[in-house]
Amino acid sequence: MRSAFILSVAIFLVLFVPKNSYSQQQEADSLYQSLQRNAPGNLLPDTSNINTLNDLATNYRYTDMDSLLKYVELAQQLAEDIGYSKGYFESLYLRGWYHFYKGEYRKSLEVSNSGLAHPDIFNFPEKEALLNQLIGTSYASQGDYHLGLNYFLRALELYRQVDKDIDEFQILNNIGVSYFQLEDYERALEIFEELDSLRTLSSQSISLPVNLGFINYELGNLDEAEKQLMRIINYEGEEFDQRAIGLSTYKLGQIYLQRNQYPLALENFNRSIEVYDQYEKNLKKYNH
Length: 288
Known about the structure:
By secondary structure, the protein is mostly helical. It contains 14 helices and no strands.
């Protein structure tokens, strides 16, 4: 149970933060209207349309998986037709993400590795980093943290080459998770404490106190673990992924169980179950 919980928040949350559904639909409508077509109504094979199609696919990745796949396939085909490598790699990444989100990890690895094998990939280090990160996440999601860590470290090297601070933050998070799963808790703690010092708590960094809580728990620092987890429970900022609540209440339940505070433990375990039941219902809705 520990592995499934810590991985789900630490890797997924920082990679994918959904938008408000209303603003998301507005953006999708605007992007669709901007697509350029010829007289018969066919899409023009140019870089602008390919970028817009990839943007449309990105926009739909939390609300309509069928639309995501439709637009990314169009983008990939047009990019191949005109030899637009940057757009092609972006569409490959999004297609790999689609399979990852559906739990089709082998297919996600196949798509991502095809991008890394492309002769032009070395001219686009940011896209190479994205594909390495997705491969690392796919391996980690299957429990192969040793192999996943190698791809995360390569992605970090590439992000630093292109000076992508946000993406570097994300990949460091995943490296920290990998160390946690490999039970190198001291190394994991060092990474997450550094990351926590760099940002104020927000919806995009909500996984940090979760990870710090889990790590301190493993190190036997129960007071510090409780302190970190309560940061999520008491957070009053913008909307965030509720899996963070599910994770935090689960671990708080374990802490209170160790202290023989049974009513508090039961209360937190029940709340964790409720959160994950709702999450599974939402996931099924998005996947159909």
